[in-house]
Sequence to fold (470 residues):
Amino acid sequence: MAKREHTFKESVDLMFDRAAATLDLPTGLADQIKANNNVYQVRFFVKFRDSYHIFTGWRSVHSEHRLPVKGGIRFSPTVDQDDVEALAALMTYKCAIVDVPFGGSKGGLRIDPRKFTEFELERITRRFAQELIKKDYINPSQNVPAPDMGTGPREMAWIADTYQTLHPEDLNAIACVTGKPLSQGGIEGRVEATGRGVQYALQEFFRHPEDVKRAGLEGGLGGKKIVIQGLGNVGFHVAKFLEEEDDAKIVSIIERDGALFSDQGLSVEKVFAHLQEHGGVKGFENATYTQDGASALEAECDILIPAALEGQITLQNAPRIRAHLIAEAANGPVTYEADNYLREQGKVILPDAFLNAGGVTVSYFEWIKNLSHIRFGRLDRRHEEIRGQQIIDALEELLGKSVPDHLKSNLTHGGDELDLVRSGLEDTMRTAYQNIREIHLSRDEIPDLRTASFVIAIEKISRAYIEMGL
Ligand code: NAD
Fold:
């Protein structure tokens, strides 16, 4: 019989322990950082279709060394307390790795959203939100959720409105949740943010030829063969950007009902449209289809991007993974055992707590926007444009020649909100990767990028505790 592998939460804790063991921390501090501070389980009912429907949900707070704590709310038929606690812990480490000043939290509601109408989902979401708000598990200064699997801007708008209804006196009420639609206090670029962050991180990885070589690859992202699992919010955006902007080839897309293959590369937009229309990838033209989606994780490719859910690469399938580079867009896609095995095989893993931090980074920008009550770029955009025009005028006067039109339009473009969000996100992902690789390469005892990213998180959080005097 196959040996039981560790659960998601156990895997995260073991990865933490591996990193903490390389540091000289005061006795007990690593345990304090690792422990989940609290978790709230709630059961509530909503009446519709002439009957009472009972739902179970959780919100876990992992670490409050910074406030508010931050982390998405997941709607999934399989989510449980273990998952929510593992995801909350990852949020703490993620925020520390990318220098976002939040603690970690996560929520989950055990529900299959596809089985309910929009009207029913709204009632369920609002009721769940009320339960969390009552206990301050949603609050702009204490605990700020965001979207995760099965939720998006629509659910965040319902949550924000529920909070505002209960707290009309709170000037910052709208900052109680991020990932809202733009018209409800959201920010440009939040929907694409996690996928965009994965793209920026991959671009940065390929700027370091020695890292690329260590993974057994060469060259840039152009032409690289990519397999992606999950064409949801994260998977769709990263696959689309890599295909359209980096000339990578998406050779396989894995969804719930199976996988598509094409040596020529799949059109992500077209597969996505098919998925929206038919609820699966089966029947998509000009591609080979297999019902055994999991087998596509083992397909010949350069980069494997799991972007669906946890526990996808285990000791069972790890020996057959052929990708050189595994980019963890999802949270927890590789178990602790598989992680050790893959490293021994020379595979390089870009770890989740760093790689998918684009979402929380732009959520941080949204929260700041909500607190400042002003859109980014509103004060300085036209001013920047005027400065650009002044530089052009000065150049033309000095040189006696006119500046070419393409240079003029670049120089007179003032940054709007999307430009600024993307710039902040790119800087965050690039800097974080540089810090992680630096730790990995400079300390012999740190075997991989995951351990290096945990070391960064633990060092920052322990410093916060020590300086606080706790
Ligand atoms: P989503 O619900 O938008 O998409 C998930 C996709 O995966 C769906 O298309 C679904 O059909 C597919 N899927 C589900 N089970 C599958 C399976 N067994 N095989 C193949 N495909 C399957 O969710 P999302 O927001 O894109 O989140 C995906 C992952 O990224 C999760 O691990 C989540 O925690 C993580 N994440 C999300 C964000 C965010 O901003 N949304 C941020 C950081 C991390």
User: Anything to note?
Assistant: Residues 147-150, 194, 229-235, 254-256, 293, 307-309, 329-331, 356, 359 surround nicotinamide-adenine-dinucleotide (CB under 6 Å). The radius of gyration is 23 Å. The chain has a mean pLDDT of 96. The chain has 16 helices and twelve strands.
